[in-house]
Each structure stands twice: as structure tokens, then as C-alpha cells.
């Protein structure tokens, strides 16, 4: 038997148990045939000792093993066959227990063989007996190799493993998670938890460990903080700590998203700066595929909520990776508003006081933060962008800025005052709409009777025709302007002189009703001269109803019907006196 190539079959043959690991079976087979170790068989199977004791068998090696055994043995999933292909090399490396084994003290009292499930680092509970698995010699804490386990005693102190006392674990979450993990390992279609089979859950767990490392034990199995990535004893992984961490993952995604959000809250509190960034970056890799969108949605929503509360900044790692998430927030920090818009803090306070935007003061870690509601900020910025000055209104309409005041007073434009700003502004859209309504019809030729806008104002200035009058008559269609340019201002309009004169009569009538008759109109109405009219007014102490003070210092006097009647009565009395004197003189 010294040459492995001479091995044809084994004298003593064994069947494999349904849940036995192939490595455990090979060691049992070697022992049953009285080999000192498995080197003879592993060489024949073309396997290294490392591969043979860590369940890393190829199809060819298993075919040879069947030939040696002299009967067909079916190696399946429950024996750990092709486990690496099943779960992927990355996860396989993380969860496989190498060069050492663990066992259930009660299982080996029933039947002494190595179960496949015991190979997995996160599995640390016998789901049949609810006892903790043992991964070190109970007597001297020495690691247990597969050879020592098959030999049934510690290689260092010769403690017999069958005498191990069992430790019952009664923590409900831990037990439940271990049961689900075991069932998932045996059946790829079994859902360990929401949307997760065995492979998906293990992947989720190892990403979630980045959030849980350093956190309290949420399932209260231990009083220690979870130390997942520094849980080594004598250079080996502590399977029990990893099992506790896995149970915390199971708890974390049950009652989703409540427990998940609690973990994130604790994570943010515990971690700062670069450490925070690196851990979140590692967790974020979970979302490189679409398998965990249900978690990603809650994860993104959480950090949007955090930035809305002012607890994290826009340069937080999550937003660096997914800057589009910033579009979903409802608040923005005051300093960011100043940086992006140039609006000073004092101006923001002023706008808040005048309810132009919403500014909220909050306390975050004992520090005052000021948050601006994005909706109100956008409204303000949009309104500000659409507002123009009085001078700009004049340019759009084609009139001077002083005349804009008259247009506003007439109610054609609405002035807007933001906060306590002295200058009033105007909606550009409103100004453009007024311009459109006042624009003339486009023509290629004009009747000689048409006069340009500014020429109308000059020619009929003495008749008190104003820009407001022209706008008013244009909107009422009493004036129908024409123009050559497709785009222009009121200044580019031409007006029919006959229509202007008709409108002037209306203006005159309206003013007579409003202010009264002008002095010259009173003279015409009473058919008397200027000197006589003045004499009657002064002799009878009759005052004008309205006096217009012009810029050049001149005055215009207006008289209403009642006053004109009074003047007429005085004239009649004066005429009667003159007639009476003449009669007396004739006598």
C-alpha cells in the first residue's frame, strides 16, 4: 500500500450518512481500514491533505473514492459536494471552517460522525438539540482537527469528546436564525427571510457586518459589543461570535425597516469621518446588483431624512456615490444656500421674517443648524428670476421709466415688494402679456393718416392725452394700432389720427366729468371773453373746482357745471343791472 497507484479497493467499506461531510467520511473510511492517517487515500485521490480535510473534493476524486469503496456512494448537497460552486468563491472562503472542526456533544453520543453543517463558521447551534456547538477542546481549549475528532479525543490532552457537557441556548432570535440558516443550507429554494435564500442571506450578512461591527448585541445574547472583524482567538475565527453577528443580521431585517433604521441610527452615532465612509462604502457594494433593491430604497430614504434634519451634510459618502439622491431632499443647510446662491444669512433671516421662505432652526449634537425648505427657496429664486425693475419694464414696453408709475397706478401692472426691499419689482410675464395686448397688427404699408406712437404724444400733448389713455383705448379696441416689426414695443406702433381725435373727445368728456371744464372751454360755453370771465370770477369770489399745477409754473383751472351755472347766474344779474341803468338813463 506504500504506492498510492497500487490501491484498487478497500477491504472495509462504509456508507456515507445523508448529512455527513465528505471529509469526515474519508477520515472514517481511512480509520476503518486501519490506515495511520489519510495520506495514502488522499494521494490516490490526487488531493492535498488540506483539500482532503476541508471537503474540497473534485468529481474525479469522488469517482476514484467510489472505486476504492467498491460500491456507488451518492455525494450530494448535504455532504457539501460542490459547495464552492454553489455559493461562489468569495462566500465560500468566508464561511468555510478550515483545518479544524466543531461538533454537537449530544449528536456524537447518538452517532459519532462529522455533520456537513458543522463546517460552516456562522452555524454554531445544533438545531435538533438546541445546544451550542463546541469548536475547542473543552478541557484545554486546543483546536480540534478532523483527525482528532475521528479519533474521538483531543490531540493535546486526550480529553474524550463524547464526555463534553452540552450548553443549551434559549435565546429565541439566535435559535430561530440558526434553524433558518440550517434549512436554507439544505434547500436552495428555502427563504431564510424576506427575499433571501441561503446564498443571498450570507451575502447580505457579510455586507451588513460593516454596519454592525462595534454595535451592541441587539438580540441580548451577550453584553459585549459585536466585534465581527476582530473576533480572532489564537489566530482563528470565533464561530460563536460570527453566529451571534449573523443572528443580529436576521433580527436587523425582520420587522423591516424598523430594526434596520435603528441599526443605522446607532451606526451614525458611533462612527465619524473616514471610518464612517469606509464602512458605508463597503455596505453600499451590496447594491451593485438589483437583488437588494428593497433594502436600498429604505437605506436611501433614511439618509435623505437625515440630511433633511441637518444631521449629515451633502458631502456624506452616500451622496457622493449617488448625488441624484440630493434632489429628493426637502431641506437644505443655510450655509449651502449661501454658497450656491450668494444670499447672505441676514437676507435669509429677513426673507423668513416676511414669510418669503421657510427657515427652521434645529439643534444637532448640541449645535444650532439652520435649514431652508427647498420648495420655498425654489419659489423665491424662480420669482426673483422672473422679476424685473421699473426701468426694465420701460424697456419692454418702450416707454420711459417714469411713465411706468402711471401704468401701475392705472392697475395694468402689479408691483411686488420682496421682504423689506425699497425697490418694487414686476413680473416679467405680466409685462410681456400687456405688451402683446398692446401690439399693433403687422402690415407692410401704412395710410398717411397714421402717426407713430411718440409723435401722437407730442402732437396731442396739449390735449392731455397720456400713455395710459393710449393703452386703455388700445385694450378697448377704440384704437387699432399697426406696426411693421414682428417684435417690438408700444413705441413701434402707429395710430390712426381720426381714431386718436375720437378718443380725445372721450378723454375731454371724462375729464370734464371728473375735474370740470377748462378755462377756455368755460369761455366758449358762456360765449364771453377771457377778461370778462376773470372779472366776474374775481368780483363774485368764485374759486375753481380744480387747479392743475404744471411743471413750468403755469396753472390750469377747471370748473364744474355747478360752478359754471353760478358764473352764468352772476353774468345774468350783471346784465340785468346794466339794462336797468340804461332804462333809467333813457328816462
General description of the model:
Helix content is 48%, strand content 9%. The chain contains 27 helices and 17 strands. A hairpin with a 5-residue loop joins β16 (546-549) and β17. α9 (172-186) packs across α11 (239-252).
Give a summary of the structure in a few sentences.
The protein is mostly helical. Helices cover 48% and strands 9% of the residues.
User: Main sheet: which strands, in order across?
Assistant: 5-7-6
Overall pLDDT metric: 87
| Global structural class | mainly alpha
Q: Compute the gyration radius: what is it?
A: 49 Å
Number of helices: 27
Distance between the termini: 181 Å
Give short descriptive properties of this protein.
587 residues; mainly alpha; three-stranded antiparallel sheet; 9% strand
Amino acid at each position: 500500500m506504500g504506492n498510492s497507484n497500487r490501491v484498487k479497493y478497500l477491504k472495509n467499506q462504509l456508507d456515507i450518512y445523508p448529512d455527513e461531510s465528505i471529509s469526515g467520511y474519508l477520515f472514517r473510511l481511512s480509520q476503518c481500514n486501519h490506515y495511520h492517517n489519510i495520506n495514502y487515500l488522499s494521494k490516490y485521490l490526487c488531493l492535498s491533505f488540506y483539500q482532503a480535510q476541508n471537503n474540497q473534493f473534485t468529481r474525479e476524486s469522488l469517482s476514484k473514492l467510489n472505486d476504492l469503496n467498491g460500491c456507488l456512494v451518492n455525494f450530494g448537497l448535504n455532504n457539501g459536494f460542490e459547495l464552492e460552486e454553489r455559493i461562489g468563491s468569495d462566500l465560500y472562503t468566508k464561511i468555510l471552517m478550515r483545518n479544524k472542526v466543531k461538533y454537537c456533544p449530544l449528536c456524537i453520543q447518538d452517532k459519532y460522525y462529522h455533520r456537513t453543517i458543522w463546517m460552516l463558521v456562522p452555524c454554531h447551534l445544533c438545531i435538533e438539540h438546541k445546544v451550542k456547538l463546541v469548536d475547542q477542546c473543552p478541557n484545554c481549549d486546543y483546536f480540534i482537527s478532523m483527525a482528532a475528532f475521528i479519533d474521538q479525543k483531543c490531540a493535546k490532552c486526550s480529553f474524550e469528546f463524547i464526555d463534553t457537557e452540552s450548553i443549551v441556548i434559549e435565546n429565541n432570535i439566535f435559535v430561530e436564525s440558526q434553524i433558518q440558516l440550517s434549512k436554507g443550507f439544505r434547500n436552495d429554494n428555502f427563504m431564510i427571510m424576506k427575499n433571501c435564500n441561503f446564498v443571498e442571506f450570507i451575502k447580505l450578512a457579510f455586507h451588513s457586518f460593516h454596519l454592525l461591527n462595534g454595535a451592541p448585541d441587539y438580540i441580548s445574547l451577550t453584553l459585549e459589543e459585536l466585534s465581527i472583524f476582530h473576533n480572532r482567538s489564537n489566530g482563528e475565527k470565533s464561530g460563536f461570535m460570527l453566529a451571534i453577528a449573523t443572528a443580529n443580521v436576521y433580527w436587523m431585517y425582520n420587522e423591516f425597516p424598523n430594526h434596520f433604521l435603528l441599526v443605522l441610527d446607532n451606526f451614525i452615532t458611533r462612527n465619524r469621518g473616514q471610518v464612517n465612509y469606509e464602512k458605508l462604502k463597503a455596505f453600499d457594494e451590496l447594491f451593485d446588483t438589483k437583488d437588494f433593491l428593497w433594502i436600498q430604497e429604505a437605506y436611501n430614504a433614511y439618509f435623505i431624512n437625515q440630511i433633511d434634519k441637518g444631521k449629515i451634510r451633502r458631502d456624506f459618502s452616500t451622496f457622493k456615490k449617488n448625488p441624484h439622491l440630493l434632489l429628493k431632499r426637502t431641506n437644505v443647510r443655510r450655509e449651502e444656500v449661501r454658497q450656491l446662491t450668494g444670499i447672505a444669512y441676514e437676507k435669509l433671516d429677513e426673507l423668513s421674517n416676511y414669510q418669503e421662505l421657510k427657515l427652521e432652526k434645529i439643534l444637532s449634537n448640541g449645535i444650532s443648524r439652520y435649514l431652508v425648505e427647498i420648495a420655498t427657496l425654489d419659489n423665491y429664486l424662480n420669482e426673483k428670476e422672473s422679476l424685473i425693475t421699473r426701468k426694465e419694464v420701460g424697456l419692454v414696453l418702450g416707454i420711459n421709466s417714469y411713465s411706468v408709475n402711471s401704468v401701475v397706478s392705472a392697475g395694468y401692472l402689479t408691483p411686488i415688494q420682496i421682504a423689506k426691499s425699497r425697490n418694487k419689482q414686476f413680473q416679467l410675464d405680466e409685462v410681456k402679456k400687456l405688451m402683446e395686448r398692446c401690439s399693433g397688427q403687422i402690415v407692410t404699408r401704412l395710410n398717411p393718416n397714421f402717426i407713430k406712437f411718440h409723435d401722437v404724444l407730442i402732437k396731442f400733448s396739449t390735449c392731455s392725452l397720456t400713455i395710459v389713455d393710449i393703452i386703455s383705448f388700445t385694450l378697448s379696441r377704440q384704437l387699432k394700432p399697426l406696426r411693421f416689426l414682428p417684435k417690438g414695443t408700444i413705441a413701434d406702433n402707429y395710430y390712426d389720427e381720426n381714431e386718436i381725435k375720437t378718443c380725445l373727445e372721450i378723454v375731454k368728456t371724462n375729464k370734464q366729468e371728473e375735474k370740470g371744464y377748462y378755462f377756455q372751454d368755460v369761455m366758449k360755453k358762456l360765449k364771453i371773453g377771457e377778461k370778462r370771465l376773470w372779472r366776474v370770477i374775481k368780483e363774485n369770489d368764485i374759486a375753481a373746482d380744480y387747479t392743475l399745477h404744471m411743471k413750468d409754473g403755469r396753472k390750469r383751472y377747471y370748473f364744474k357745471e355747478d360752478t359754471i351755472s353760478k358764473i352764468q347766474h352772476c353774468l345774468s344779474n350783471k346784465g340785468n343791472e346794466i339794462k336797468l341803468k340804461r332804462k333809467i338813463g333813457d328816462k
